[in-house]
Specification:
single chain; 281 residues; mainly alpha; 2 domains; two-stranded antiparallel sheet; 11 helices; 38% helix
């Protein structure tokens, strides 16, 4: 995506005109509508409230105190309101890393909102009607859903498959919810850390040499094509084109012995069951 790197400064006051395939989509209805709007501003987005929320309600195991957040939700609501104040001009002035950080933070923060909007809390995000495709939010001058943020923006506008290690849909088998916001300056290091954490967890990746089986998170099955552009390979690893690309990506985070084992390709690829239970404390 070609970015406009410059903000246009005008000497006179003008009137800003407000612009007004997920695998989970089959179970969703579009009967839940949440419109988030606010006064637009060209000031940089401030993540302080979101940082405070993550520090307070996400523990060292990336589990969330949803009940506590539900009782004291003002900072979350305020932060989510500020998301709607980012104008197209401001957004397009940012570097790509800052844009990715913005959408990732928005996805995770609006997911938190979707969870605590339920009273009582649901046992799984999948129990919320329309959570991915029905609930709408005003972001960068457009009406967006969580599905749109992930599948029509992040996956389309950027060649960065590590976003799947950072987007958290409030389930136990999701990657860990980081207890700090993503920022453009730290994005690469943050995504690297997220990837290493996820692959080291029982929900991300496992080798069973005795059975000659390699287990991957279902995330790599659902979105495997996102790795092909950068990590596609013909002669190493095993499986279809998506699986070989994913395994090539994963091999970069392994010790030499495990990397050699993956490259040899003498194993079966299997996918871990996905635990959709709420990632709550």
């Amino acid at each position: 995506m070609k970015l406009n790197r410059f903000l246009i400064l005008l000497p006179t006051l003008i009137l800003l005109a407000g612009c007004a395939g997920s695998p989970f989509a089959q179970a969703q209805r579009k009967d839940a509508q949440v419109e988030v709007s606010g006064t637009q501003t060209t000031e940089p987005l401030n993540y302080d409230n979101y940082a405070s929320i993550l520090k307070t309600y996400v523990n060292e195991n990336a589990m969330v105190d949803y009940q506590g957040l539900q009782k004291k939700r003002q900072k979350l609501d305020t932060f989510n309101e500020t998301l709607s104040t980012v104008t197209t001009e401001t957004y397009e002035s940012w570097e790509q890393a800052a844009q990715i950080a913005f959408w990732t933070n928005a996805y995770n923060s609006l997911t938190l909102q979707s969870i605590i909007d339920q009273n009582p809390l649901k046992k799984s995000i999948r129990d919320i009607p329309g959570v991915w495709r029905g609930r709408k939010f005003q972001l960068v001058g457009q009406s967006k859903t969580l599905d749109n943020i992930e599948h029509k923006t992040l996956r389309v506008d950027f060649n960065e498959p590590r976003i799947h290690m950072a987007l958290v849909c409030a389930a136990v088998s999701c990657p860990p919810l980081r207890n700090e916001p993503y920022t453009g300056e730290k994005l690469d290091a943050q995504l690297e850390d997220q990837t290493r954490q996820f692959l080291a967890s029982p929900h991300g990746f496992r080798i069973d040499r005795a059975a000659d089986e390699v287990y991957l998170s279902s995330i790599f099955q659902w979105f495997g094509e996102d790795w092909k552009a950068t990590y596609g390979v013909e002669e190493k690893f095993t499986g279809n084109a998506n699986e070989r690309a994913v395994l090539n990506f994963i091999s970069g985070y392994l010790n030499p012995d495990d990397r050699a084992y993956l490259e040899a390709g003498d194993y079966k690829v299997k996918y871990l069951d996905y635990d959709w239970a709420l990632n709550k404390q």
